[in-house]
Amino acid sequence: MDEMLVSAHSQAMTLLATRSQREQRGSARHGVAFWLIAAVFAVSLAFSTVPAPLYPLYQRQDGFSSFTVTIVFAVYAVGVIVSLLLAGRVSDWAGRRRILLPALGLEIVAAVLFLTWPALPGLILARFLTGLGVGLITATATAFLLELHTAHRPSAGRARFEIVSAAANLGGLGTGTLVAGALAQFAPAPLRTPYLVFLILLALSVAAVAAVPETVIAPAVRPPYRPQRVRVTGSALVPAAAAFAAFAVFGLFTSLAPGFVAGSLHHPGRLLAGAVTFLVFAAGAAAQSAFRPRLRAGLLTLAAGLVIVAAATQLTSLALFLTGGALAGAGAGVVFKSAVGATVAASAAHERGASLAGLFLIAYLGLVGPVLGLGVATRTVPATTAMLWFTGFLLTLLAAIAVLDRFRRS
Question: Left, alpha or beta for 381 (phi > 0: left; psi -120 to 50: alpha)?
Fold first, then answer.
């Protein structure tokens, strides 16, 4: 009898040990997957900013005006918005991988178009497809990273997720401009080589997504499809407005700023054009990682940066422009991180993708609206005057956000 009890106890311990080993292996697999998806997120967003330092080359090749550049940029943002509206919530029930794979496919098709059809119609179509892909990726990859982080470290806080997702998002956006600017400066075929490099990276990203585990359990009954609804309640008004303002700043530095540096500031180097945009996004990512997301501090830093950028445009000072851009980027990074944090904290797990999609939708409206207005303004007034108008609009918006946040907290 004792031998039977000992044998049963031994078998139970063996089963528990086996289960523990399986759980540890599963956890380790989710840990590897976390870093793979972070890399995929960074690559996909880096690809979206590759054209930024190349716009002056396109302008010289095809005679683009600054207004045409803003139209091309706006088409990208429209693609993001359409994608978020039509499929922003789908990954909550279809699965994260099932959305990321076709999204990366859209970016690969866009890369092929950039390589084979460099004329204006091809550029517009490629940017629209890029926007569709990014719209699918942003909310999906952010939710995916949080779920993989939780599966890997269930008892840990969200600090690692917040830092890595911020670095993949803003760091990826900035890295794309820096890599493209360097390749355009030093490599042959400046309007082809950057896209070829990222085509290879996107193909590797597809393989990475195919290898990671899924984190969404498909429901037994598929919910009825409906487009993403944009609802800005009282509690969501401040995060939505903050995301709008942050992306308006990022939009400026990925559309007209490279041309402004080459034209008004008389520094036409492609590496410098990419470095200016990289500086803004790198400052945003660094500020997100180094500081707790305090909205008021972010708003003040962003406002100070915008004032310095406006002064630099009047004084035609590159040093001031870079200083203001770094401050504005840091402030925008903190502001956007606080908006994402507030949205995630207020969202149930089964609605996380939809909530983030709604936030990114508002953010990308900020990306396209003010910048398009700035492009229209440059047709009738000097670029320096248009930049002053842009600064005034954003400073007014930041003041309104600060007032609303104070009332919300009181």
Answer: beta
Q: For 133-142, how does the pLDDT look when each residue is reduced to its tens digit (9 = 90+)?
A: 998 998 899 8
CA angle 320, 323, 328 (to 5 degrees): 120
For the range 313-320, what are the long-range contacts, defined as Cβ-Cβ under 8 Å and sequence gap of 24 or more?
313/260, 313/264, 313/383, 313/384, 313/387, 313/388, 314/384, 314/388, 316/264, 316/265, 316/266, 317/265, 318/261, 318/265, 318/267
The whole-angstrom separation of Cα 41 and Cα 51 is 18
Residue 12: its pLDDT value, please? 42
Domain at 28-212+233-409, CATH homologous superfamily: MFS general substrate transporter like domains (1.20.1250.20)
Q: Return the axis-axis angle of helices 55-62 and 66-87, rounded to nearest 10°.
A: 120
Q: Which two tokens stand for residue 192?
A: 């082809």
- State pLDDT tens for residues 218-229: 776 777 777 766
Q: What is the mean pLDDT of the chain?
A: 83
**Residues 239/341, Cβ–Cβ less than 8 Å:** no
Give yes or no for a contact between 362 and 244, defined as CB atoms under 8 angstroms apart. yes
Q: Using 50, 70 and 90 to split pLDDT, how confident is the model at 15?
A: very low
Alpha helices in 49-171 (DSSP H): 55-62, 66-87, 91-94, 96-116, 120-152, 159-166
Query: Do the beta carbons of residue 144 and residue 104 sit within 8 Å?
Result: no
Asked if 48 contacts 77 with a C-beta cutoff of 8 angstroms, the reply is no
Cα dist from 66 to 221, 259, 265, 361, whole Å: 50, 8, 15, 25
Find all residues with CB under 8 Å of 18, minimum gap 6, and list them: none
Tens of pLDDT, residue by residue over 354-408, are 677 778 788 888 877 887 887 788 788 887 788 888 899 999 999 999 998 888 7
Q: Are 75 and 132 in contact (CB under 8 A)?
A: no
Rg from Cα positions in the chain: 23
Alpha-carbon gap, residue 38 to 205, rounded angstroms: 10
DSSP class of 378? T
CA atoms in the 13 A half-sphere facing the CB of 142 = 30
